[in-house]
Amino acid sequence: MTPVVAARSGPREDAERFPIPHLEAFVATILTAAELPPADAQTVARLMVSADARGADGHGVFRLPQYVQRIQAGGINRHPQMRLVQDHPATALLDGDNGMGHLVMSRAAAVAMEKSASTGIGWVGVRYSNHAGPAAMYAAMPLEKNMIGLYLAIGNANHMAPWGGTELLLSTNPIAIAVPAGTHPPVILDMATSVAAFGKVKRKLQDGEPLPLGWMIDGMGQPLTDPAHAHDGSLLPIGGPKGYGLALMIGLLAGTLNGAAFGREVVDFNADSHSITNTGHCVVAIDVARFMDLDAFKAAVDAVCEQIHGSPTLPGAEIRIPGEHSAALVAESRELGVPLAPAVVRQLELMAAEFGVNPL
Amino acid sequence: MTPVVAARSGPREDAERFPIPHLEAFVATILTAAELPPADAQTVARLMVSADARGADGHGVFRLPQYVQRIQAGGINRHPQMRLVQDHPATALLDGDNGMGHLVMSRAAAVAMEKSASTGIGWVGVRYSNHAGPAAMYAAMPLEKNMIGLYLAIGNANHMAPWGGTELLLSTNPIAIAVPAGTHPPVILDMATSVAAFGKVKRKLQDGEPLPLGWMIDGMGQPLTDPAHAHDGSLLPIGGPKGYGLALMIGLLAGTLNGAAFGREVVDFNADSHSITNTGHCVVAIDVARFMDLDAFKAAVDAVCEQIHGSPTLPGAEIRIPGEHSAALVAESRELGVPLAPAVVRQLELMAAEFGVNPL
Questions:
Q1: Among A129, A288, A334, B302, which one is least packed by beta carbons within 10 Å?
Q2: Which fold has domain B16-72+337-355?
Q3: How much is the pLDDT for B12?
Q4: For A181, which residue in chain B has the nearest alpha carbon?
Q5: What are B189's strand-pairing partners?
Q6: A275: burial class by Cβ within 10 Å (0-12, 13-18, 19+)?
Q7: pLDDT digits (tens, 9 = 90+) for A66-111
Q8: pLDDT in tens, A318-355
Q9: Is residue B111 a contact partner of residue B92, using CB atoms and an 8 Å limit?
Q10: Sequence spans of domains, chain A
């Protein structure tokens, strides 16, 4: 099996839809066939399908072949002994023992929520984790306890140079923040610190389209618009030096502070399926009720959303609150099934045949 | 006195330099003459001069006339009874009772550090504060205890529309993060969520120069390049919807969560010197030693800085680590004095005459 590229398949018109429980069971079966413990396989499957259900299809079921390849190559510990190497009233450092990122981050979020319930906030740093899917998923976990969630991560491949430089020392290190609302969907921001994700660049290559100006530069600082040369260039950070600075700080907080990989230590998990990635993240849970009455807060968030939604728009434009598009996609996926691109479906069918399990 | 505009004076060639203690004493004298208690006047003066010393001249002594105007107009409480309206092991909510922002935020940072020393992290939300100067200053306070600092704030005037909208519901809400290093200066990011600060727009107006493309748009979404029409347009967020999303989340965390003003509630403190601004901020202190050995962490941060500095540059470019330029300016200011633009010096001399105190 060749390394799987990280292009987003996108919710296209030709997508096929599958009921959530059916798709979860299929993914869990494959992961179990790859010898993950069944309970862990189910947890990972649930989160992977949840990514597709919310529209983060570049971080969902699409990744299954790559995950299985890494598990089989020995790049993932199937039986990690996760442990808190630091444990304080409001902070902890979790060593994921190179387990599946979804399992490590679920544990980290649970610890953050426990600490927050006790002290008002829980900040849990993580090392020796792996790619864990969309950032929003972990920022959103504390919402179930009426907590605000914050998530930072080091991406699993460096595609961005420092501002003014040419060496790809930075990933598109994402930040996600989730805030509970009342009648409005939770406000959830999930953003990379680059103008475009590298997966979008790969999609342009697949589609035979040039890259828009402002996405990438080449080694001379000139605009790079031919996606076939993307590996010779650098993604551009949002706001120039600002996005570079933000990616750097996220690297220090999610990586260096936790003893996780950053800079030249980062393993390109698209090109290498066996090396330990030592992926760093951190997840934070903030207990809203420690600041103000929960219902009053939710009403205030609703009011902010309504004020923004009710404000005048540019000609032909609409105003979105972060998170509401995902919430609509989740509702749609529950009703109609989770959309998968035909290419992804074909890859899943190949895997089913390979493992001798029932087809999708 | 007419309302003071928030243009940056900038460290120009024609700047005059003043020794730090001398400038601090002058500012404290003026603030005392405006009937701030002497100890408070000294604290505010020290922080205001510190802003200029680090190059944040748009948030330093330049603001003195505006602050005095607000104090005299009754828009600032000279004798605030600050209190923790919420106080938990790792979080607190500080009501600043409409005191000077510098005093409120110094108190908030102290509380955050105390809580962090006890639990690993302290997150302090603030309401009923005021403009407090550069974000970096408060993110940097925890450095003295070998803690990482994080600061979020709601700006004191709305200059940015939601993405797709035209109503100025957002400020350029800044974020600052400070991380201690070993031999390298602390890594300190201080960024607005807009491409350009509104002060820079005003500077272009003063200098008779057009605005670069990408700074602002007009009410039809077209590029706005004439700074004389800046008040009819919107600053653009970094990364389009990303910067908008970040400004919104900072608003929810620094404002809504603390019961502080956000959206239409925000008072334009440049145009109105008497209304209570109910400015919201939050400051966070994270105790590095709760994650890893302090010296090992500092060495790791140095290694990241050296890796980035030692990496190849674009033709004619240099690579900067956030915070090192400010550190160099601080060293220069200590040696040569703090630079003030001639227009600022003239304004200070006018104030000295007005209050009958010794000239600068």
A1: A334
A2: Hypothetical Oxidoreductase Yiak; Chain: A, domain 1 (1.10.1530)
A3: 60
A4: B252
A5: B177
A6: middle
A7: 999 999 999 999 999 999 999 999 999 999 999 999 999 999 999 9
A8: 999 999 999 999 999 999 999 999 999 999 999 999 99
A9: yes
A10: 16-72+337-355, 83-194+237-290
Bridge-based pairing of strands A216-217 and B83-87 is unpaired
Tell me whether strands B121-129 and B91-95 are parallel, antiparallel or unpaired: parallel
CB contact under 8 A, B89 and A86: no
Please name the residue that has the structure tokens 């550190």: B327
Instruction: Judge contact between A7 and A203, C-beta under 8 A.
Output: yes
Q: Give start and end residues of each alpha helix (H) in A128-207.
A: 135-140, 198-207
Overall average pLDDT of the B249-274 stretch:
96
Residue B65 vs residues B61, B198, B248, B273: alpha-carbon distances, Å: 9, 19, 30, 11
Q: In chain A, at which residue ranges do the beta strands (DSSP E only) sit?
A: 16-18, 83-87, 91-95, 121-129, 147-153, 175-179, 187-191, 216-217, 234-235, 279-287, 338-340
Judged by a CB distance cut-off of 8 A, whether residue A90 touches chain B is yes
Contact A256 B300 (CB under 8 A): yes
Element (H, E) at B87: strand B83-87
Does B4 have pLDDT greater than 70? no
Cα B63 from chain centre: 11
Statement: B83-194+237-290 belongs to CATH 3.30.1370.60: yes
From residue A104, how far is each of A43, A272, A280, B201 by CA, in Å? 11, 21, 11, 46
The pTM of the full predicted model, rounded to 2 decimals, is: 0.95
H or E element, residue A334: helix A324-336
The beta-carbon neighbor of A165 closest among B246, B259, B312 is: B312
What's the sign of the alpha-carbon dihedral B244, B245, B248, B249?
negative
User: What confidence score (pLDDT) does residue A229 get?
Assistant: 95
Q: What per-residue confidence (pLDDT) applies to B248?
A: 98
For the beta carbon of residue A210, count every other beta carbon within 10 angstroms.
Answer: 11
pLDDT band of residue A9 (cuts 50, 70, 90) is very low
Chain centroid to CA A202: 17
Q: Helix crossing, A64-72 with A20-33: angle to 10°? A: 20
Question: For residue B247, is pLDDT > 90?
Answer: yes
- Percentage of chain A modeled with pLDDT above 90: 91
Asked if A299 reaches chain B (Cβ–Cβ under 8 Å), the answer is no
